[in-house]
Model the fold of this input.
Amino acid sequence: MKLGVGHTMFPPDWPLEKIFGEAAEIGFDGVELWLTEDGAVSLTSTREDMERVKELARKHGIELYSLASGLYWQYSLTDEDSAVREKAKGIVRKQLELAHALGCDTILVVPGCVGADFLPESKVVDYEAAYARAAEWLWELKPYAEELQVSIGIENVWNKFLLSPLEMRDLIDRADSRYVGAYLDIGNVLNFGYPQQWVRILGKRICKVHLKDFSREVGNLNGFVELLEGDVDYPAVMSALREAQYDGWLTAELVFPPEKALEGIRRTMEAMRRIVHV
Done:
């Protein structure tokens, strides 16, 4: 398995070249980039822009393998407003195009939202309607993913949607494409399930994995802690991943204050090495 680090773990004012250099120095194999409305990788980025990003990564021996985004909290793929849904689908298309240009084989997509308590403006969407809309957009956009040979990885997040690995499995299977899969976030499961069970049920559908840890005792957004300091049973998770013959990327996705980011990222790498060798 290869070890990656999320672009957003580094201070927000750092240029990509500095991020790639530090990631390589710490020992990461690759960086998961982050799509925003403006910035180094954005909705206005061009193929030529991505060629320059690829060259910077190549210079430091860093692989680019996945493109994530937080834009789907603002533009939900299951919103009641069809105009918002169309905007979100446009983001998926752009994300696929940029990932292809970067040489990434996966994009991370939040598949929709029923509700998000941590977002004050979040609207509650009917669960059944959200499921139908998610199935619809996946079916609509999978041909583009297939054409570009970039997988759409739908992530389990705190969106009150796809709360069971059985639901996620069935939604993926309805899309009926090798380019639609699960982007499994290990830490996000802890508040309502067991990640090793998700691994076994999703199996070959898992295209990428996020590593986080979480304290059930805290039980809210403040419960996310550093790797190996929470309640994730990482020996069980790694055993399940090996049983599923998963040999892809493990990407750290944690949050540190900018002034403490580098030391936190170094600790994260140490923890990841311990996790993969259990």
Q: What stands out?
A: The mean pLDDT is 96. The CA atoms of residues 45 and 98 lie 8 Å apart. DSSP finds nine helices and ten strands in the chain.
